[in-house]
Amino acid sequence: MRPAELLSAMTAAEREAAGLMREAHDILAECKTGHRDVVTAYDRKVQELLIARLSEAVPGARFFCEENDRHDELSAEHLFIIDPIDGTMNFVRGLHHSCISVACCCGGVLTAAAIYNPYADEMFTALRGEGALCNGRAIRVTADPFCETVTACGTSPYNPELTDKTFALLRMAFLESLDIRREGSAALDLCSAAAGRVGVYVEPSISLWDYAAGKLIVEEAGGVCRTLEGEELPFDGRKSSVVAGSRENVAEFLRLAAKL
After folding, report:
1. For residue 201, what are the β-bridge partners?
2. Is 205 in the same domain as 126?
3. What gap in Å lies between CA 223 and CA 246, rounded to an integer?
4. Residue of 198, 174, 187 lying closest to 256 (CA atoms)
5. What is the pTM of this model?
6. CA torsion angle for 115, 57, 73, 217 (degrees, to 10)?
């Protein structure tokens, strides 16, 4: 299947699954690793629907998903990396800032990405080598310098041992940029960086399903994604820190962070 056909199957599946999110009611959250790490029946339903539709489109496809410990081999010929509802706490609390994130890898290489925010009806997509789009229109990381942009941030709430490091970084970003924003969805923060809405998105620890699709979207929008150590993000299932945005703004953020 050609990359464009893969992407079409991904966006169609996401739009269908988004109906489950929009129609959700009486949402009950269950704790996974702790009281901040929650899952709902809707996360599972969305994931099951996505797996079903993508399996129909790509027979034999493999999956690496957040829920139900479905972690197939990352080097598979066709692998879909799924976060069924990124921003589950927002979803539970009715904050209407959550999304469905799907990335497709072919032989370990990110090939296509789609992130859909059903509340804003924004579909962010990317194909390797073909640029990034939001609702079919090209997007680009900002050309503004870090000091003239807003910084998007995550607080890695599942890792309280990182609290001091996290808020030291956020304090620096608050003082060195125009302001900070903490909106509760790593995937959508990556899209905001790709679309030039923020100068940089930073978080000390997120999972592969949080950043796989957003990474490709940022890169195809002319940006970069790095760890806080300035390295490429891992693609082996480990958690990672992330700093994403234009090459210049990521470099500036890392320069300032090194002084802490």
Report:
1. 152, 244
2. no
3. 4
4. 174
5. 0.96
6. -20
